[in-house]
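Repro case for the chain-ordering regression, as requested:
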Amino acid sequence: MSRLKRTLCALVSLCVMIAPAYAADFVVVENSNAKAAIRLGDNSGGTKFAAKELQKYVKAMSGVELKILATNEVAASTILISNERKGLKRDEIGLKVTSNGSTLELYGEGRRGAINAVYELLERWGVRFFGVDPKSDKIPSKTTLSVPSDLSYSYAPPFEQRFPGSIALDRNVGPAWAVKLRVSREYKKIGGKRDAQMGGGHSLGNKYYINPQKYFEAHPEWYGLVGGKRTKGVQLCHSNQEMRKQLLEEVKAKLKVRKDSGAFDLDGITYVSLSYLDSNRFCKCPECKKLLAEWGGSRVGPLLDICNYVASGIEEEYPKARILTLAYWDWVEPPKKVPRELHKNVYVTICQNGNKALPVRVQETPMRRLTEWGKIAPGRLTIWDWDACFRNYITPHPIYHLYADDFKTFRDLGVKRVSTQMEHGAVFADFVELRTYLYTKLHWNPELDTDEMAKEWIDHCCGAGSVEINAYYKLLERAVWGDEPKKRKTRARMHGYNPGRGWLNALNLGKSFMLFENALAKTAGDKFTHGNVRCLSAGMLMLVIERYDEVKAVFEDAKKSMNDASFENIKLPSRLELVDRFEQIGKDFYIWCWREGPQPRDFKSLVKSLKEGTR
Ligand SMILES: [Zn+2]
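-- result from build under test --
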């Protein structure tokens, strides 16, 4: 190394050592003294909440409590927080130091704009929101907090609606965490009041619209002609004009109630969900057959026809309300013929049902559907995805490795929103908090690095056991995608009903068990990390119990083949001991349902069947 280079290196090191005391920085806290105050840019609930959150986390990091000034108060140096700034894209946020250096502006579009900007700043300072329980927050200790004086950052996420249906984000379990993860849902606590969607997923002909309990007797002709009889609980008679008029009135009445109550922001994005029932019994009357033929015989045609009718009928009064419909099951395929152009306010949700072990972009059928639907409803596609093993929520299901890839594909195809149905019943379902964390971070920005975020999460949440749990995370990835996992080549098929049989062999299960034994031992003295490791072990444990004989047979060989001294003293307990351990995890962590589908779905019945060996 030349002398010049050495001198330069020394200078650089010196600069690093004395950072961040650059005179040009916008300093918030210096040597544990407050150097700026927070000022409210407006008096909305969201802005006040954002100011308090910033104050709380700055104090937790530095011990310093920043003052919160009212909108008309002044200070030499202020962090100005404001909401609902106009002229921004949906959910766009900004972090900007003004040209005179006296103000750090934190702002954003919508009622969540300010809080999203505050969390962005906190994350830049190293804060992480890793779980439902605020004890999972990673809060670095800092005596000085600052941002560069030339900071000028703005960002709008690619999807205007972001929500994973994860139990960890359920309104009752974790709304505070959901807000930190920037998911799209409104919460009263922070001044939210708009509800993005009216009606559930299968709304036509159930309690939402054209309720058969109310109308079947007087108007059987509104309901499907099946087996020669007008029938309840099947699809409506979609061609019936009187039924359509009634439907339009019902939609208008619901919109009006919400408008009048003031509890619904009709200037924001409002979806009215109109979709077929979850049934494949359709009306066979001559008019319905004619309507079907007009759309080239495609099942989805009459549904689009109804959506067009309602969208035109409400457009004048509610120009921003969007009709949202589901392309699903027998009607997931785009129509072969489109006799009438889709109304500009009709949005189509494609239900993704490809192989979860492969990125969407390499799968012919889902890509063809997305492309064809994109031509019929340009810029108006949304996605309904499935991200859980519905046959068994607890079992390992490592499809989070593909989130970023798939989000990029959806973004590039102009998809407006992505919703994902995750496990509903078990907080200790496979990696549920890590998956929710990765999902929401990548939903906001698909360019983030999945592995880096996962490692950060595991390092923090599993502490002394993080080496083993990081190894388990990688083991699962290699079990699906082989020794070059990033190529994403596999013969494995993973979907909602494949509990790890084809891709996770007994040898890998044995190795997983040993990794967890060591992680549990290493974290034994720490309640938080030990609890997390126990919770994470449930998926692996579930499979070891179910496939006990297989795992036992390879267990000794696995120990040898791992060639790792730390595994030498590990024994595989008896099957019943493992069931007891599994049962105790269920008692200590929230679970009310372990799968979709047939009853019984409660945890006690699962444990009973494991004890009796009937599973
Ligand atoms: Zn009919």
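Ordering looks correct now. Residues 388-397+415-615 form one domain.
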